[in-house]
Amino acid sequence: MSNQWIYLSGEYVDKNEAVVSVYDHGFLYGDGVFEGIRVYEGNIYKLDEHLKRLFDSAKSIMLHIPYEKEELEQIIAETVRKNKLETAYIRVVVSRGTGNLGLDPASCSNPRVVVIAEALALFPKELYERGVRLASVSSRRNRPDVLPPQVKSLNYLNNILVKMEANQAGVDEALMLNDQGYVTEGSADNIFIVKNGTIYTPPVYLGALEGITRNAIIDLAEEHGYKVKQEPFTRHDVYVADEVFLTGTAAEVIAVVEVDQRKVGDGSPGAVTNHLLSEFRKVTTTDGHQVYPSKEKAQVS
Ligand code: PMP
Q1: Which residue lies with its CA nearest to atom 2 of ligand 1?
Q2: What does residue 215 show for φ and ψ, rounded to 5 degrees?
Q3: Is 213 within 8 Å of 252 (Cβ atoms)?
């Protein structure tokens, strides 16, 4: 027994027994969709938005999720409760299910739904204080008319390849451009730049996932009086920006202090980035779905 419960198509099973068929088309072809979600002190941050994106991704690839949104919401909350978690990371995976060796999804009759919740090792505090370094990479972001980056599919090879390029360049994250040279995003996060007090992020149609954190930061920034523009920009604009930061479920809001060996600003996290990170952290424990009724919460170890 591992003491960790995984939801696997209808039942909660021990982690060691949570296995799927090698004929699952998620395994054979990356045919499926997923979400990565965070729990902050018993609050599943923006669960509704994550579920909407999951269902939209599934619709786009004609994958039927065999639950209503509300049912899946309950399953996700129950997986967190069953594992007695307070601050955690949740992975929801819906694969096409088991079929034959051919790629035609018609052979798969039962989509598989998996929910994993585990304790989260937060990014080290030092990383937020020092910021991260980026390198632009040679692999371009998938074209939206080939494999839409807005679909959060199980096919993450585009992202994996650029992550490897970033590792080879000795930096923390990749800066991905689209086939026309416009900035799109990182391997697993959205990008923002700040110039003369205005905040810019690429429109998602250029080739980016519509990040839940991205949208939350746009809203928060506007609430705090910043002007935010969703406009195309190039690598040059990133080089000469006053501030650059990344957003994502894992990264939250993290400063970029170097891009292709050019220092961003004075080489340390900027004031706008720090402000938005602190405002973001204020809402993560309340804006979402509470897992534990307040009485029970205190009893969770
Ligand atoms: N872009 C990509 C390619 C990602 O995988 C992620 C992580 N889900 C993001 C951006 C950030 O999205 P979110 O804020 O929803 O985590």
Answers
A1: 188
A2: -65, -35
A3: yes
Tokens of 268: 């340390």
Domains in the chain, ordered, with CATH?
A: 5-119 (3.30.470.10), 125-283 (3.20.10.10)
For residues 187 and 34, give the distance between their C-alpha atoms in angstroms, rounded to a whole number. 16
Give residue 192 CA to ligand 1 midpoint distance, Å.
13
* Interface confidence: ipTM more than 0.90: yes
Ligand 1 atom with the smallest distance to the CA of 212 is 15
Contact (CB, 8 A) for 150 and 215:
no
- pLDDT of residue 300 exceeding 80, the answer is no
d(CA 135, ligand 1 centre) in Å: 18
Q: How far is the CA of 140 from the centre of ligand 1 (A)?
A: 17
Average pLDDT over residues 17-30: 98
Catalytic residues, by residue number, are: 152
User: Are residues 251 and 36 in contact, defined by beta-carbon separation less than 8 angstroms?
Assistant: no
pLDDT at 122: 74
Percent of the chain with pLDDT over 90: 94
